[in-house]
Amino acid sequence: METAKKMVHSMSRLRQMSWKKLSLIGAGVGLAAMALMMLTVVTLVVGTPVLIFGGIALLLVSPCLCCTAPLWLPPLLFIGIPTLIFFVVTGGIAMFLAVMTSVGSWWLYRYRRGPMPPGGHLVERMIDRLRNAASRTKSTLKSTRDGVYQVASARLIEPEL
């Protein structure tokens, strides 16, 4: 009986609410329902192929995993798991990513603007090699093409014996 009285009391409070508040509550409930439906659709659309292809990949790769387990299991147990525990406990993954991003940004800035960073001369040498290879290929193709045209024109001009 008390539950019914509480419901009647809450209904009267609902009737006293302004239209603005009711519309905001309705919009919030509608947005939450829409988000839940989209999450369901995304899970069905993305999750099903991932589950199917992941299962097929696991089925195909599992013999290799079983045969090579003696090789990768000890490093995983003695290096991987303690490292993971350390990163989870200390929050090191975020710190590691932040440090790597800052170091990479510093390296790129120095490579583009400032003095050459460590290893920058190797990048320059690689770029020069690529440019030289491209120019050599271009000249080789040009000389080969010219040679082919000369041979073809000589055959057309010379009478066959």
UniProtKB/TrEMBL annotation:
Name of this chain's protein: Oleosin
Annotated keywords: Lipid droplet, Membrane, Transmembrane, Transmembrane helix
Pfam families, per database record: Oleosin
Native organism: Chara braunii
GO cellular component, one term: membrane
Top-level lineage group: Eukaryota
Protein's cellular compartments: Lipid droplet; Membrane
Transmembrane segments annotated in the record for this chain: 21-45, 51-73, 85-109
Record carries keyword Ligase: no
Membrane topology: Multi-pass membrane protein
Recorded family membership: Belongs to the oleosin family.
